[in-house]
Amino acid sequence: QVKLVESGGGLVQPGGSLRLSCAASGSIFNINTMAWYRQAPGKQRELVATITSGGSTNYADSVKGRFTISRNNAKNTVYLQMNSLKPEDTAVYYCWAEIGDYSYDIYWGQGTQVTVSS
User: Fold this and answer.
1) Contact 93, 114 (CB under 8 A)
2) CA-wise closest residue to 66 among 86, 46, 87, 92
3) What is the DSSP code string of 4-53?
4) 50, 16, 20: which is closest to 112 by C-alpha?
5) C-alpha–C-alpha distance, residues 118 and 114, integer Å
6) Is 87 helix (H, G, I), strand (E, B) or coil?
7) Among 28, 32, 80, 112, which lies 20 to 30 A Cα-Cα from 73?
């Protein structure tokens, strides 16, 4: 059974930085695209950043230039480096991944809280 486990959330002051990690474990043959989503209170879940197995990345306009997504394929882990954090970045951050062999299933992590406040 495949699991995604996030870590690294917490409370940070505006302008600060956090690094989120998400490790996939279990019966993993191949991981295709990995991503981070977030959901703020009262809002819909939104895509933050994606990274393909080849390392191509895409970002939401709201985080471009501040957030960096990366991955370590040998460790089945994806990261989100968040710099210059703003109060509007406060949300639960979820890891997402396409995992499988000849076809991919979608997996979600349990979420980690990020709070940006003074």
Assistant:
1) yes
2) 86
3) EEEE--EEE-TT--EEEEEEEESS-SEEEEEEEEEE-TTS--EEEEEE-T
4) 20
5) 13
6) helix
7) 112
